[in-house]
Amino acid sequence: MHSSLSHLRIAGLAVTTGSVVRDFLADGLAAGVDRAALERTAKTIGLRERRVASAGVTALDLCADATERLLAEMGLDASSIDAVIFVTQTPDHSQPNNASLLHGRLGLSKSAPAYDLAMGCSGWVYGLHQAALLCAHGGAARVLLCAGDTLSRLTNPGDRATDPLFGDAGSATLVEKTGRSAPMHFVLGADGAGAAAIQVKQGGARQPAGPLAERTDAEGNRTHDANLVMNGADVFSFTLREVPGALEAVMRHAGYAPATTDALVLHQANRFILSTLAKKAGFTEAQTPMAVVERYGNQSSASIPCALIDGLADRLEAGPLKVVGCGFGVGLSWGAFAGEFGPLTVAPIASFPR
Predict the structure, then answer these.
(1) Is residue 206 located within the same domain as residue 325?
(2) Does residue 23 share a domain with residue 98?
(3) Of the chain's two ends, which shows fewer C-beta atoms within 10 Å, N or C?
């Protein structure tokens, strides 16, 4: 699906990470993995450090901290927010939703709607599209988009194929209605036939929480049905099959070309995937921020705003920049975007609790 929306802008970005630093090499050595193999993986995939949430800290806490820091940086009061969208797969509860909980924490007006999107790595783009719709057509002047997860809580420490990948983070993005006529373009899609490639089987209505039986695969990775499991080969094939076409389509709608676009900002899955996608889309590595996965881990729906801040903060504050990007993952789903970003307010990346 293609959508073009005008008279809006991203006004501010903030990201808060977990406070516990995990080292890929040290964790692997402690698990008995060969050092040479670990170093090869670190170089190819880009795994160095990740930041995970400390005990008792949730995606709601991380996003609330990001929101409060961003509002302070912008000199805004929470009462100016007209709607809240919360993108997460790790909510505090099955009921009520995280957006309503954040609405209460911030003390927002009763006229401000609050709802969740149960999306993963493509979720920030889906949420941005929703926020843009509320500004362009829904009567909202300022929408708060929060996106984040604590996926480290869902992985099994004995699953070396998945556990070392994920960091925890929450993001806050303020989207505002403006007189700007330049549109923001979106291309959204899904392939539900491949949904089993990334899943947590237990904990929903289909398979409620219950006794857990841990199993070990041929590579020695341990998981149970309440863990996040991922078929890496299927996810990689899906990514190469769908993302280049989505990027080409959104650039065509925007009238952008790689040579005249300032940045390609992708979901920070791993360095190999990012490098491969950049090359296929015609971008250089210099145009494509790639450091987030090495510094913070795969942050699910918070990874694109983190990459924007980590790789482009000064340029975004000066703006405008022509930015193209894509989130892709669980569902299977993808969301590509193209538009002018900046000038906007950027709050520095911080950990919580500090």
Answers:
(1) yes
(2) yes
(3) C
